[in-house]
């Protein structure tokens, strides 16, 4: 296009540092990424420190304190049973992080396994991808609901259902990077040199397929937290009295006219989490993999 | 008065490291009906010059720092976008390097030619179609009537470039700027397209500014030549004079590596080193670091274009020799 | 290839997916831990009741017989009977579908209008305040849980201002104004996520197209900038944008489950939530299958319109 070759070269030139440090340096200059990291960090810290920063049992009933608005005594107010919303929201953060984190880990493991197998071994690609496509054909939340309907509502089942819903999407992303990498000359050379499949996958393919996977996983964390909140809002997640942001809002719904804080505070927490993770994912994508588009 | 008069034109780009000058102090004239060749390596500022004249550089990041561009006596720099639109395509047209990507893939060939006519002349749809057809036939597209409803991907590269030329010339512009019009084409097609351009010049009486890095193309087509290096004009000459008696060491280097139509080199191998990056250009003569004839005085200041009989070069040896 | 040919070809490629989808839906009930009939009947059921239910659902037959019966039913358009409603699943679903479709269509219109327009303006004014505001709005859109937005809207528009009802539904066939009153908040809260998504995709696609050489050609011809944007840039950008319509519809269906429950709209989403909570497995199975089939069909149509928009695909 425009005679800019020289200009681009000029911009591309940077002092030589290790690629890792360059990446980290750039990430921390990405304003939105840092913002995302802070927002998500707040929730992670809240979840980890929940036992320390809350003095009241989140399930402890205290009817005489019910419907207290936020005040010095009850930072976030209380709900219809007089339970401290501060305790419930903090413990809810822990559960959200637990569920989101577990779904992400399961995706990282099984998504990579399935995706790498399908992308690397053409013979099993077709059958694996047909099953994958079928699972992806279901509307995400509906499938999760269907699975929890069968397994029954619980924290573990919510994790399982969300993992089943999202693993096909992760596998597809890993598969497409593996297919591209497999055709790279250095990989073909390694195959020709007689390197074993496992070795090629581990040393040549998977490390280079990590960038899009990491981006996907950070968005996935957001969907998982959001979907879990939806499930428990519908009464299909963790069983009360276990506090989750979704079921706090579901219970607070009938009282929202007078006690608006019961639905607004967990919603804000949920939004901070999802916004933080989305910003984080955007930042990672801009830097690691600019070609990757917004994924579902 | 020349058809196009460019005076001391300087264009800069804003980059991450401040403003960088892309072309500097460019002055050139094109007479009606003349073919002016502009030659230089990629990055020398040929295209930026053309796009500045057309007002097609994205601003920002680009900015015209100084200078004037007069077309038919009218100053183009600072002209409103609306008035500029009237000149583009009707007064000055442009043909680009990549016929593959320069045509809109979702519109038919006919529509893309007709909309140019529509933009400049208030004539009926039927008359637009006739003009498009006539022009397609003129540029040598076989069974043109059928091709009007074709999409760009259904044509070969050479045919697409012919369509680009038809599109550029359908409103009979006085000046055609052809930016590397044959670079992306096969060698045999290149010669055909160049012949077509020369024929059309004779027929329509327009001037052509042909931008290339290929000396062979210059020899085939141009009446007069400008040699650009690192954003500046280093030599200006009638085509015969340039090939017989190149004055600037850079021009000599260009001629020494003899890129003919058949053998085409994007970067010059005969001259050691590479084009300095914009923003890191040396003080004094830009070519000095690569020049075999360099003396201390070369770094002192930018030598002016000097010489006679329309043959001038920017080298301190020119006056001395 | 004719357009109808393309349609048939894409439809044919959806068949294996639907076969696997239906197999998965069928198997769903067999993953119930323990005895499905006992689970459905509930704790208070007598052994006789459980036995009868087991027989009604065909669970006392061998697996293969159940499978064959399921597929035979499928081809006859029979998805079993809802335990809760005592009616055929297909009938129950067909009764509820128009409600959900009207809501989804409303939300889709909002999505396309807001998403495309804000995306295009953001791209045209890249890095300006318009762009930054639009992208911040889009980011909030994709980060805001739709049921929470719904709750906030109820709190604001219904409880505080009293402008709109907190829930309920009036069919648009009966009373258009009533339908708008009951559907606007649900549609808005349902659309928000997709608006954000579409705005982001439209922006990045438009930016990519605006960088293309043919845009410069169009400008060099002396076309007005407006013409260049609408006729040259948008026409090209719409092709990749079309492909996300399938994703958008999928998200709309997912979102409508909770939106319908929140606003008490008697659509498919609410129906399926009820079915799950009441362990009406035939309804869950049949409903899931029907909704997924509709989604697969939407994706076939998206593929076809993709081919329709892109002459490179259309003319092979």
Short overview:
The complex is a heterotrimer of chains A (296), B (321) and C (316). Chain B is of the alpha/beta class. In chain B, 32% of the residues lie in helices and 24% in strands.
Please tell me about this protein's structure.
- The complex is a heterotrimer of chains A (296), B (321) and C (316).
- Chain A has helices at 5-12, 19-29, 31-53, 85-120, 122-137, 140-151, 155-182, 185-192, 197-233, 245-252, 261-288.
- Chain A is mainly α.
- In chain A, helix 7 (155-182) runs antiparallel to helix 9.
- Chain A is elongated, with a radius of gyration of 23 Å.
- The two termini of chain A are 33 Å apart.
- In chain B, helix 3 (109-120) packs across helix 4, helix 3 packs parallel to helix 6 and helix 6 (157-169) packs parallel to helix 7.
- The longest helix of chain B is centred in the middle third of the chain and has 18 residues, at 187-204.
- Chain B has an 8-stranded mixed β-sheet with strand order 6-7-8-3-9-10-12-11, with helices on both faces. A 4-stranded antiparallel β-sheet of chain B has the order 2-1-4-5.
- Chain B has helices at residues 46-54, 81-87, 109-120, 125-138, 144-147, 157-169, 187-204, 215-221, 239-244, 249-256, 316-320; strands at 4-15, 18-30, 35-39, 62-71, 74-75, 92-95, 175-179, 207-212, 224-229, 232-238, 306-308, 311-313.
- Chain B is of the alpha/beta class.
- The radius of gyration of chain B is 20 Å and the shape is globular.
- In chain B, 32% of the residues lie in helices and 24% in strands.
- The interface between A and C is large, with 47 and 57 residues.
């Amino acid at each position: 296009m425009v005679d800019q070759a020289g200009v681009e070269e000029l911009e591309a030139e940077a002092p030589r540092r290790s690629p890792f440090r360059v990446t980290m340096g750039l990430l921390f200059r990405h304003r939105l990424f840092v913002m995302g990291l802070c927002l998500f960090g707040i929730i992670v810290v809240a979840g980890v420190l929940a036992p320390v920063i809350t003095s009241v049992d989140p399930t402890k009933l205290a009817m005489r304190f019910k419907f207290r608005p936020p005040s010095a005594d009850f930072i976030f107010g209380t709900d219809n049973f007089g339970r401290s919303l501060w305790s419930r929201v903090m413990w809810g953060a822990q559960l959200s992080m637990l569920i989101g984190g577990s779904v992400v880990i399961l995706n990282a493991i099984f998504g990579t396994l399935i995706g790498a197998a399908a992308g690397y071994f053409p013979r099993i690609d077709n059958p694996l991808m047909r099953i994958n496509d079928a699972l992806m054909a279901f509307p995400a939340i509906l499938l999760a609901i269907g699975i929890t309907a069968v397994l029954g509502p619980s924290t573990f089942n919510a994790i399982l259902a969300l993992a089943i819903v999202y693993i096909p999407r992760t596998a597809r992303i890993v598969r497409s990077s593996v297919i591209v990498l497999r055709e790279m000359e250095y990989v073909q050379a390694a195959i020709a040199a007689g390197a074993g499949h496992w070795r090629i996958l581990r040393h040549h393919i998977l490390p280079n397929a990590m960038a899009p996977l990491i981006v996907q996983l950070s968005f996935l964390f957001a969907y998982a937290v959001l979907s879990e909140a939806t499930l428990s809002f519908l009464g299909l997640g963790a069983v009360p009295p276990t506090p989750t942001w979704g079921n706090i809002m579901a219970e607070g719904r009938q009282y929202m006219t007078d006690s608006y804080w019961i639905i607004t505070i967990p919603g804000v927490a949920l939004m901070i989490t999802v916004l933080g993770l989305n910003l984080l994912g955007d930042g990672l994508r801009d830097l690691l993999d600019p070609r990757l588009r917004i994924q579902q | 008065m020349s058809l196009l008069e460019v005076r001391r034109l300087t264009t800069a780009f804003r980059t991450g490291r401040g403003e960088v000058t892309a072309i500097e102090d460019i002055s050139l004239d094109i007479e009606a009906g003349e073919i002016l060749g502009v030659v230089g390596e990629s990055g020398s500022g040929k295209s930026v010059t053309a796009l500045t004249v057309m007002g097609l550089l994205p601003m920002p990041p680009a900015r015209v720092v100084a200078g004037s561009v007069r077309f038919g006596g009218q100053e183009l720099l600072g002209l409103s976008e609306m008035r500029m639109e009237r000149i583009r395509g009707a007064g000055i047209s442009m043909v680009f390097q990549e016929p593959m990507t320069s045509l809109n893939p979702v519109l038919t060939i006919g529509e893309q030619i007709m909309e140019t006519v529509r933009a400049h002349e208030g004539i009926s749809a039927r008359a637009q179609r006739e003009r498009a057809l006539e022009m397609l036939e003129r540029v040598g597209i076989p069974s043109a009537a059928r091709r009007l409803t074709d999409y760009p991907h259904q044509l070969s590269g050479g045919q697409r470039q012919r369509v680009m030329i038809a599109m550029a010339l359908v409103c009979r512009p006085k000046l055609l700027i052809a930016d590397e019009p044959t670079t992306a084409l096969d060698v045999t097609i290149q010669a055909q397209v160049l012949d077509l351009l020369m024929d059309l010049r004779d027929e329509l009486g327009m001037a052509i500014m042909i931008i290339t890095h290929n000396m062979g193309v210059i020899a085939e087509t141009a009446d007069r030549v400008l040699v650009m290096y690192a954003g500046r004009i280093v030599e200006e000459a009638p085509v015969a004079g340039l090939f017989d008696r190149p004055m600037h060491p850079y021009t000599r280097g260009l001629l020494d590596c003899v890129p003919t139509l058949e053998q085409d080199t994007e970067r010059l191998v005969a001259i050691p080193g590479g084009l300095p990056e914009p923003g890191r250009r040396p003080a004094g003569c830009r070519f000095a670091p690569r020049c075999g004839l360099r003396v201390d005085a070369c770094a002192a200041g930018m030598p002016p274009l000097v010489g006679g009989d329309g043959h001038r070069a920017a080298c301190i040896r020119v006056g001395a020799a | 290839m004719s357009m109808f040919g393309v349609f048939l070809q894409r439809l044919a490629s959806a068949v294996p997916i639907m076969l696997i989808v239906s197999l998965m839906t069928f198997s769903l009930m067999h993953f119930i831990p323990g005895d499905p009939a006992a689970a459905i009947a509930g704790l208070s059921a007598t052994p006789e009741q459980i036995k009868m239910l087991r027989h009604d659902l065909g669970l006392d037959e061998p697996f293969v017989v159940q499978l064959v019966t399921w597929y035979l039913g499928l081809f006859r358009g029979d998805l079993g009977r809802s335990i809760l409603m005592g009616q055929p699943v297909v009938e129950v679903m067909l009764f509820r579908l128009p409600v959900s479709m009207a809501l989804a269509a409303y939300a889709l219109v909002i999505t396309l209008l807001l998403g495309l327009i804000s995306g295009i303006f953001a791209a045209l004014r890249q890095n300006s305040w318009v762009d930054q505001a639009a992208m911040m709005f889009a980011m909030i859109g994709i980060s805001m849980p739709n049921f929470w937005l719904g709750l906030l809207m109820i709190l604001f528009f219904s409880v505080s201002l009293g402008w709109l009802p907190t829930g309920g539904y009036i069919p648009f066939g009966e009373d258009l104004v009533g339908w708008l009153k009951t559907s606007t908040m649900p549609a808005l809260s349902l659309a928000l996520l997709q608006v954000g998504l579409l705005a982001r995709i439209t922006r990045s696609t438009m930016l990519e197209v605006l960088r293309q050489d043919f845009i410069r050609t169009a400008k060099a011809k002396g076309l007005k900038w407006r013409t260049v944007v609408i006729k040259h840039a948008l026409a090209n950008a719409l092709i990749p944008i079309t492909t996300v319509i399938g994703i958008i519809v999928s998200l709309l269906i997912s979102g409508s489950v909770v939106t319908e429950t929140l606003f008490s709209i008697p659509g498919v989403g609410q129906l399926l939530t009820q079915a799950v909570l009441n362990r009406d497995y035939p309804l869950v199975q049949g409903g899931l299958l029907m909704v997924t089939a509709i989604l697969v069909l939407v994706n076939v149509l998206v593929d076809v319109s993709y081919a329709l928009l892109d002459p490179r695909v259309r003319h092979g």
